[in-house]
Amino acid sequence: MIRENVTALLKELEGGNCYHEKVTLVAATKTRTPAEINEAIAAGITDIGENKVQEFTAKFDEVNGARRHFIGHLQLNKVKYLIGRTDLIESVDRNELATELAKRSVRAGIVTDILLEVNIGCEESKSGYPLEEAFSAYERLSRTEGLRVKGFMAMLPLAGDEGYLGGLVDKMRALYDRAKAHDTNIEHLSMGMSGDWRLCLAHGSNMIRLGTAIFGSRTSPVGQHLPVRQ
Ligand SMILES: *Cc1c(COP(=O)(O)O)cnc(C)c1O
User: Fold this and answer.
1) Atom of ligand 1 nearest to the CA of 71
2) What is the pLDDT of residues 153-203, one digit of tens each?
């Protein structure tokens, strides 16, 4: 089933987004086992994303051949477990986190690739920079030693009609284009989950994070199958 899903998705993504840009498909792996993740990679998945630091470290040691994204809310005291182990941290949602990532990256002698997360729907339940603050945060962080800003990430609200939601993606695309105009590091606009990815691609996203569309519905609570470890 995983293989069939990945094959069909990659086929549909061949044409790219509405600008014919290449689309990166990230498999969102929360609650999935290393065996399931490896099956997705064998089927052609090149990028995987995990939400929780504990799952990231426990599972991603057992999977091979994919770029590793961190896509969840990141606590400051967990940053140290991720330094040097990620290909892209998509969820840099506040200045304190960026500062901590920069400090530890410099100390480790590396540059950490990040996306800035924007709370595009202004939702209390979600984190991220307000849209009005995102460009100035980008300008500052793109000059911060230890960090390389590669673009932006956002999650659409669950509710809302297509016109409203498409308009939110348009706003994110405008932010992305403004940054990209003078910065060759800017490559990714990460928007789109299983329920809304076609809409996001139609409005200029070029990276999507899919869980259920690849692996099927999540039946177990997050992390249930993993041994508890600190
Ligand atoms: C779980 C998750 C996804 C994927 O969600 P699906 O609806 O299963 O596709 C994408 N992005 C983030 C940040 C997630 O936590």
Assistant:
1) 13
2) 999 999 889 999 999 999 999 999 999 999 999 999 999 999 999 999 999
Q: Which of 209, 210, 219 to mutate to test the pocket of ligand 1 (most atoms within 8 A of CB)?
A: 209
Q: Parallel, antiparallel, or unpaired: how do β-strands 207-210 and 67-70 relate?
A: unpaired
pTM of the model: 0.94
pLDDT (tens digit per residue) in 55-113: 999 999 899 899 999 999 999 999 999 999 999 999 999 999 999 999 999 999 999 99
DSSP secondary structure string for all residues of 142-198: TTSTTEEEEEEEE---SSS-HHHHHHHHHHHHHHHHHHHTT-TT--EEE---TTTHH
CA of 166 to the centre of ligand 1 (A): 18
Q: Which residues line ligand 1 (CB under 6 A)?
A: 28, 30, 51, 71, 193-195, 209-213
- Number of the ligand 1 atom closest to the C-alpha atom of 153: 13
Q: Which helix (H) or strand (E) holds 59?
A: helix 53-60
What would the mean pLDDT of 133-150 be, rounded to a whole number? 98
Is the CB of residue 117 less than 8 Å from the CB of residue 154?
A: yes
